[in-house]
Amino acid sequence: MAELTRKQVEVILREATGGPANLACLDLSGLNLAELNLRGVDLTSSDLRGASLEGADLSPNRQGESPARGIRTDFRGANLARANFTGANLAGARFDGASLEGAILADADLGPEGSQAASLVGTNLREASLVAANLSEADCSDADLTGADLTGASLFGTKLERVKGYAS
Known about the structure:
The chain is mostly loops. The protein has a single domain, classed as 3 Solenoid (Pectate Lyase C-like). 6% of the residues lie in helices and 2% in strands. It has 1 helix and 2 strands; from the N terminus they run βαβ. Strands 1-2 form a two-stranded parallel sheet. Helix 1 links the parallel strand 1 and strand 2. It is elongated and about 50 Å long.
């Protein structure tokens, strides 16, 4: 896995032609990528452990286009507060211990991997697919789960205070 600096990532994003940038299989751990426009970027199998993506936009570029892909991406311990993952394919991504406070994961596919002990306070999870997701010990207080599919999800020890759209 290649290790990059924020400046190198900014160059890749700026110089991408023919579509969104490809940041797949890169070591971006610990980087401050806050507020970057990562719309449609491919982050498949990238290592973002401990990275800050606070306020980053990972949503689709335009109506009908693909959102960012984070398949098997490692977000453990990352700061993803207020990041926009609308419609993102995050199957197999790991969010253990990550901060997703106020993030938008509407219509996203989080798949059956770990969000254990993640902070999802105030997160928008409307229509998200959380099938078989491990949300054990996560804090989902004030989150919006309206229309979310929680079939088979593990909610052991999960805080569900003032959650919209979820009947326990």
